[in-house]
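Following up on my earlier thread - several people asked me to post the actual chain instead of describing it. Fair enough. Here it is, all 158 residues.
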Amino acid sequence: MANKDGNHQLDELDFKILSELQKDGRMSFTIMAESLGVSVGTIRTRLNKMIDDETVNIIGRVNPDKVGFRCYAHIAVFVRPATLKDSVAAKISKKPEVSFLAMTSGDYDLEVDVMCRDNNHLVDFVDEISKIEGVSQTKTTIYFKVYKYAQPDLKLLK
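Reply from S.P.:
Thanks for posting it. Predicted structure:
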């Protein structure tokens, strides 16, 4: 059954499949089917449908610290005039350092989280985005230590 966006409506089994994948993204269809009490074909069909409609994306999740990213930061971006927000966001989103980007309400216009090799890399990144037309100011907060980095808990939707 499709929702108003044209994507299929997720049911309890879909959420269980997603939860299993969050525990182990390499879990076989056979093990998942046994765990959930359904056929392998059902798992394959459901998961392929969720991949096709972009509900889930199967990727290998890298531990940034273990591979050499030593500087995480949050950057508040102030855009003037405000009509350039979308244009600025589009340019920032193309930067490979960006792990999160959102338009915000409040004191600043865009919130950007980045992962950089080191502080010098971060300084270069902030200099780059400061030169984008419409960026009037940035405010950078470095994360000294990340205590939790996780996917959303699907149980919160129940």
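The helical segments are 12-23, 29-36, 40-52, 64-67, 85-93, 119-130. That should answer part of your original question.
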